[in-house]
């Protein structure tokens, strides 16, 4: 297979590769990495290093592999943090709403609840949390004792 890319497109591909590999393995312990993603990353980074993209990839002898440079990692970290913040604000209200429904009805009752009724109730609760977070952020979020 052959893929023709401009140098700028290849730089962008490396950045996408970094983000994809981070999404697949960034939360895993090293020995739990999904090898197929790591293998593709190594393959593409070796090409980058061979083709002179030293600002993106560097061979590290002690680790016997080619890895993203610290400059690339720093640049991508800004995008990752932006994503993580967006995910927090999108999912936290839903998780809290699910928790509240579980407390209100119990897990057993939720499993047999009409899907439409569940969805309506859950999204109303989530909207309540969304409004709270829009106005107050996390300022009034507390962890109480049981």
Along the chain, the helix and strand elements come as HHEEHHH
Strand order of the largest sheet: 1-2
Give the biggest sheet.
2 strands, antiparallel
Proportion of residues in β-strands: 5-15%
The total count of helices amounts to 5
Total number of strands: 2
The separation of the N and C termini measures: 60 Å
Radius of gyration from the alpha-carbon trace, in angstroms: 22 Å
What proportion of the residues is helical, as a percent range? 55-70%
Quote the average pLDDT: 93
In words, what does this structure look like?
The termini are far apart. 11% of the residues are buried. Helix 3 packs across helix 5. This protein has helices spanning 7-25, 35-50, 70-105, 107-112, 115-136, and strands spanning 57-60, 65-68. The protein has 146 residues and is mainly alpha-helical. 68% of the residues lie in helices and 5% in strands. Strands 1-2 form a two-stranded antiparallel ribbon. The model has no long low-confidence stretch (mean pLDDT 93). The radius of gyration is 22 Å and the shape is elongated. The chain folds into 2 domains: 7-68, no CATH class; 83-136, no CATH class.
Short description:
The chain is mainly alpha-helical. The chain folds into 2 domains: 7-68, no CATH class; 83-136, no CATH class. The chain has helices spanning 7-25, 35-50, 70-105, 107-112, 115-136, and strands spanning 57-60, 65-68.
């Amino acid at each position: 297979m052959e893929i023709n890319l401009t140098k700028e497109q290849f730089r962008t591909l490396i950045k996408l590769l970094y983000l994809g590999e981070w999404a697949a393995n960034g939360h895993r312990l090293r020995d739990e990495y999904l090898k197929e993603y790591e293998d593709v990353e190594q393959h593409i980074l070796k090409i980058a290093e061979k083709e002179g993209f030293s600002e993106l990839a560097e061979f590290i002898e002690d680790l016997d592999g080619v890895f993203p440079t610290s400059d690339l990692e720093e640049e991508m970290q800004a995008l990752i943090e932006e994503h993580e913040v967006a995910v927090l604000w999108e999912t936290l209200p839903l998780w809290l709403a699910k928790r509240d429904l579980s407390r209100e009805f119990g897990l057993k009752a939720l499993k047999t609840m009409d899907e439409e009724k569940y969805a309506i109730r859950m999204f109303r609760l989530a909207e309540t949390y969304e409004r709270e977070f829009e106005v107050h952020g996390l300022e009034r979020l507390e962890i109480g004792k049981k």
